[in-house]
Amino acid sequence: MACFCFLVDQKRKIRRSKPAAGTCSRCRSGASVAEMITQTRFCYVPFYCKSWKAIMCTFCGAILKSYR
Ligand SMILES: [Zn+2]
């Protein structure tokens, strides 16, 4: 059972994004509102999917704020 955790992985995808007001605190470029999907997979088979929204930087990808 020691290898169990290696079979589970999470993938984060951006479904769509649009420009938002505000700037990134790290690189000062523009932020956008992104609709994300987190997919949890077991042995490469997705078994859990969660969609959420976050304000993220379009340049460095930092998540400035997340809400759901
Ligand atoms: Zn940034």
Q: Count the helices. How many?
A: 1
Q: Write the H/E string, N to C.
A: HEEEE
What is the helical fraction, as a range of percent? under 10%
Task: Return residue spans where pLDDT drops below 50 for at least 5 consecutive residues.
Answer: none
Number of strands: 4
Question: Reading side by side through the largest sheet, how are the strands ordered?
Answer: 1-2-3-4
Number of domains: 1
Give Rg in angstroms: 15 Å
Largest sheet: 4 strands, antiparallel
User: What portion of the residues fall into strands of 2 or more residues?
Assistant: over 45%
Oligomer: single chain
Q: Output the structural class.
A: mainly beta
End-to-end distance: 34 Å
- Rounded mean pLDDT score: 89
Bound molecules: zinc ion
Tertiary shape: elongated
Can I get a quick summary?
The chain is mainly beta. Helices cover about 5% and strands about 70% of the residues. The longest helix has 4 residues, at about 5.
Describe the structure.
This protein is mostly beta strands and 68 residues long. The chain has one domain (8-67). Helix content is 6%, strand content 69%. The structure holds zinc ion. The site of zinc ion has 8 residues, from loops.
What distinguishing features does this structure have?
binds zinc ion, 68 residues, 4 strands, 4-stranded antiparallel beta sheet, single chain, mainly beta, 1 helix
How would the blueprint of this fold be written?
Blueprint: H1 4-7, E1 8-23, E2 30-42, E3 45-57, E4 63-67
Antiparallel strand pairs: 1-2, 2-3, 3-4
Bound molecules: zinc ion (ZN).
